[in-house]
Amino acid sequence: xxxxxxxxxxxxxxxxxxxxxxxxxxxxxxxxxxxxxxxxxxxxxxxxxxxxxxxxxxxxxxxxxxxxxxxxxxxxxxxxxxxxxxxxxxxxxxxxxxxxxxxxxxxxxxxxxxxxxxxxxxxxxxxxxxxxxxxxxxxxxxxxxxxxxxxxxxxxxxxxxxxxxxxxxxxxxxxxxxxxxxxxxxxxxxxxxxxxxxxxxxxxxxxxxxxxxxxxxxxxxxxxxxxxxxxxxxxxxxxxxxxxxxxxxxxxxxxxxxxxxxxxxxxxxxxxxxxxxxxxxxxxxxxxxxxxxxxxxxxxxxxxxxxxxxxxxxxxxxxxxxxxxxxxxxxxxxxxxxxxxxxxxxxxxx
Length: 350
Known about the structure:
With 350 residues, this protein is α+β, with helices and mostly antiparallel strands. 35% of the residues lie in helices and 25% in strands. The chain is built from 11 helices and 13 strands. Strands 5-4-6-7-1-8-13-12-11 form a 9-stranded mixed β-sheet, with helices on both faces. A two-stranded antiparallel ribbon has the order 2-3. β9 (230-235) and β10 (238-243) form a beta hairpin. α8 (247-256) packs parallel to α9 (278-287). The protein is globular.
């Protein structure tokens, strides 16, 4: 019989600077046409986002002024990756420290790291082994450049490890610095895409021991003929996000036909849906005919942090762990492909 795989606790961390108000002002000033500027402002107000946190500081000092993100020459990808190499491991260790405040993290046997907003080698996984003082024999897995659903992939991998190795204690880390990839663009649609994203990190302990969220059946689906709707284009000046306005409709249509959940939506008590944007959450709620408050955790994360790519879903699960609700759950995320990745889960402990 396979062992259960349980998330015992999740630690989260964000940088110190709330960049959301400054970004809205900055983006609005870039839009020359008055009507388009009014459209951007209206959409920003309806975004469901109040705060987004960034390792940048809006141009008032290092490293933003040095990198030229809000004036002067726009930084190259190499310059952005230099910031990522320094800041991402530090933010990840803060999330692990928050995890360690809740549960003992000694005896880690495996480390799974997800990140799509930067590339370094040696990777963040190797850096974390050193920075956290883990045993150098820890087995490492790096989940890279998969986008918003990478947390599902990381947790699914941890589940596979635990179910095959009875002594496994898996540290799962998601860290994303999405704000590094701000682009020199004055069009409304790209600016609205950039408006969604912030920085964040989360860390979870997964093992066979009881107590927490038990991970269940994983599932995945790539929706045909949607590959152009969500893209990260790697260029000379960062990773340019393309997020089509057709995404919510495509998700709703897929949930109505292409994507088959492993259990009926009506039997699910707890929803952990990636907070990719207000319109995406609305599309999921409509397509699955969910109760009015079913996505409250996702909406709260979106409101307080924005879309932190892979880290976002972990923030939602952290809220579920911190709450009193029990029952059958579903974790669901969408990303480039257009693809959906998910996991059933169960929360039974008091």
